[in-house]
Automatic annotation (TrEMBL):
Keywords per UniProt: Repeat
One Pfam family per UniProt: NPHP3_N
Domain Nephrocystin 3-like N-terminal residue range list: 2-96
InterPro entries attached to this UniProt entry: NPHP3-like_N
Stretches with biased composition (Polar residues): 472-482
PANTHER family assigned to the protein according to its UniProt record, in alphabetical order: AMELOGENIN, NACHT DOMAIN-CONTAINING PROTEIN
Segments of this protein annotated with the region Disordered: 452-482
Bias kind Basic and acidic residues: ranges: 454-468
Protein name per UniProt: Nephrocystin 3-like N-terminal domain-containing protein
Signal peptide: none
Top-level division of the source organism's lineage: Eukaryota
Length: 482
C-alpha cells in the first residue's frame, strides 16, 4: 500500500484533474460524518490507472523491488496489473535477479541485466572511506593507502558489499596488514559476511550474544530498539540485575536487505563450516527470544513492589522508563509460544514465573497483561493520567481468591495449569464465583486487539463469543473492592 500511495501522490502532483480524482477518493475513505474506511489494494490500483488516463504519457520508475521483504510478490503483482490496465504507461523496475520477481515479470517486461557503473562505485567507495576516516574507524598512515583501498574496492565492486569489506579493513592495526588484506578480499557478499563473522574466534559468550543480536534483528516483531536489544541479550539466567541503557530510540539495522536474507538462508549458512548457529531459523529464533523474555521478566530488578498505591505507580513508571523491553517481554513470550510450551527450557522458566515462591515477578507481569486486556476491550485507557487501569488490575491481584492458576487458565496454558494443580493449587479453586473452566473458555487470547498474543492476525478466529459472559471478565479484570 505504501508504494501505491506514493504513486498516487506523485501522479496527483502533476495535473489538476489527477489531483481531483485523488481528492474524491480521499473523501470516500475519510468521510466528514462517518468513520474512516479501509481500502484493499484493488481500489488504489484502479484509481492509479484512472489517474494515468489524465496524461498522454506516464513513466513510472521503481527501484528496490527485492527489498519489499514478504510483500515482494504482492507488490510485483499490483504493478503488473497497473501496467496492464493503464493507458500510455511505461514502467521501469529495478531489482536484483530473484526468481519470484523474474517469473512474474518475464512475460510482461523485458529484462535488462545491469552491472554497477565504475563511476557510481567509485563515488560510493570514496564516501564510505571518508566517513570511516572522519569517525576514526579507519586510521591510515598515508594518503597512498587510501588510494590503494579505493582502487581495490572499485576494481572488485559489485555495489552492495563494499560496506562489509570496509568494515573488514577497519579492524587491522596498520597499513601493511590492510595492504595484505586487500589482496584477499572476499569475492562476494556471502563471503564478506562470513569474514565479518570471525567473531567465531571469540569466547562462546560473545558468539552467543552476536547470535542473539542477529536473530532478534531479523525476526523480532515489533522491532526492538538498541536499548531493548541490549537488555534482551544481556540476560544469562533468572535473577541478577541490569543497568540502565542510554541508547533508547535508536535501532540496529542490517547493512543491506541481502545481509538479512543471508542469515535466513539455510543453504548459504551451512555451506560454510562453523557458522550454523547464526542461521536465523524462525522456530529456533522464536524459542530463543521467548526464553530471553521469560528470563527478563524474572530479573531481580522487578522483584520489588511497594504496598502503597502511589509508590506502586512510581515504581512501574520508573521500570518502564529504565527497562523498555519489559513491556515487550510481557506479551511477546505468549505470542512466541502459541503452539505450546514444548521446549523444556521455556517450560521451566514459565513454571518459575507462575510459582508462588516468587510472587512479585508474577504480580508485576500479571498487572501489565491485565492492563493490555483492559485497553483492548475499552475499559481502560493508555492515556489515563490517574492510573485507574493499573489500580484496577492491582485490585484483582490483591483479591484473596486470586491465584496464578486463574491466569494460566485464562491464557490456556495447559502445561502450567497441570503443574500448578499438582503442586499447590486445587482444580476447584474459584476466582470469586468464576471457575477455572469459565476462565479457560473465556480465554484472554480471544480479546479483539490482542491478536499478537495468540499469533493470529484475525481475532475472530478465536471464540470471541465467550467474552460476552460477564462473570469471568468482571472477576479477573477488576470488579473487586479494595
Amino acid at each position: 500500500m505504501n508504494i501505491l500511495s506514493a504513486l498516487a501522490t506523485q501522479l496527483a502532483r502533476q495535473n489538476d484533474e489527477s489531483c481531483r480524482l485523488l481528492d474524491a477518493y480521499y473523501e470516500v475513505l475519510y468521510p466528514p460524518k462517518g468513520p474512516p474506511q479501509s481500502a484493499d489494494a484493488d481500489e488504489p490500483r484502479a484509481k492509479i490507472s484512472q489517474m494515468c488516463g489524465t496524461f498522454d504519457q506516464n513513466i513510472i520508475v521503481i527501484d528496490g523491488l527485492d527489498e519489499c521483504d514478504d510483500m515482494t510478490d504482492e507488490v510485483v503483482d499490483n504493478l503488473i496489473q497497473i501496467a496492464d490496465f493503464s493507458n500510455g504507461l511505461s514502467m521501469a523496475l529495478f531489482s536484483r535477479d530473484h526468481y519470484n520477481i523474474r517469473v512474474r515479470l518475464e512475460e510482461k517486461i523485458e529484462a535488462i541485466r545491469r552491472a554497477a557503473h565504475t563511476e557510481d562505485a567509485e563515488l560510493y567507495v570514496i564516501a564510505e572511506v571518508d566517513k570511516r576516516i572522519r569517525t576514526r574507524q579507519l586510521q591510515l598512515a598515508s594518503a597512498d593507502m587510501k588510494e590503494e583501498i579505493r582502487s581495490a574496492l572499485v576494481g572488485k565492486a559489485d555495489g552492495i558489499w563494499v560496506i562489509c569489506q570496509l568494515d573488514y579493513l577497519c579492524d587491522y592495526a596498520h597499513d601493511q596488514e590492510r595492504r595484505e588484506a586487500l589482496s584477499k578480499l572476499p569475492p562476494d557478499l556471502p563471503e564478506g559476511i562470513v569474514v565479518c563473522l570471525r567473531v567465531n574466534n571469540s569466547s562462546v559468550g560473545v558468539q552467543n550474544m552476536v547470535q542473539m543480536y542477529l536473530h532478534f534483528m531479523a525476526v523480532a516483531d515489533p522491532k526492538l530498539t538498541i536499548a531493548e536489544l541490549r537488555q534482551t541479550v544481556s540476560i544469562t539466567a533468572i535473577g541478577g540485575t541490569l543497568d540502565k541503557d542510554n541508547t533508547d530510540g535508536k535501532y540496529f539495522v542490517f547493512a543491506h536487505f541481502s545481509v538479512r536474507e543471508f542469515f535466513e538462508d539455510e543453504k548459504a549458512i551451512f555451506q560454510t563450516a562453523g557458522i550454523g548457529k547464526y542461521w536465523a531459523a524462525q522456530s529456533a529464533t522464536n524459542s530463543l527470544l521467548a526464553t530471553q523474555c521469560l528470563k527478563f521478566l524474572q530479573m531481580d530488578n522487578f522483584d520489588r513492589m511497594p504496598d502503597v498505591s502511589d509508590q506502586k505507580i512510581a515504581v512501574i513508571h520508573q521500570r518502564d522508563e529504565t527497562f523498555p523491553f519489559y513491556r515487550h517481554a510481557v506479551l511477546l513470550w505468549i505470542k512466541l509460544t502459541k503452539d505450546g510450551l514444548g521446549d523444556a527450557e521455556i517450560l521451566k522458566l514459565a513454571k518459575s514465573l507462575f510459582h508462588l515462591p516468587q510472587p512479585k515477578y508474577f504480580m508485576s507481569w500479571y498487572i501489565e497483561v491485565s492492563k493490555n486486556v483492559m485497553y483492548a476491550i475499552g475499559i481502560g485507557s493508555r492515556f489515563d493520567t490517574n492510573n485507574e487501569t493499573t489500580i484496577q488490575a492491582w485490585r484483582v491481584a490483591r483479591a484473596p481468591s486470586f491465584k496464578p492458576l486463574h491466569m494460566a487458565a485464562a491464557l490456556n496454558l495447559l502445561e502450567i495449569c497441570s503443574f500448578l494443580i499438582s503442586s499447590d493449587s486445587g482444580a476447584n479453586d474459584k476466582l470469586d464465583a468464576t471457575t477455572l473452566l469459565d476462565l479457560a473458555f473465556t480465554s484472554i487470547l480471544s480479546v479483539p486487539g490482542l491478536a499478537e498474543m495468540s499469533g493470529k492476525k484475525d481475532p475472530a478466529s478465536r471464540s470471541y463469543d465467550h467474552w460476552k459472559k460477564p462473570a469471568p471478565t468482571s472477576s479477573w479484570l477488576g470488579n473487586n473492592d479494595d
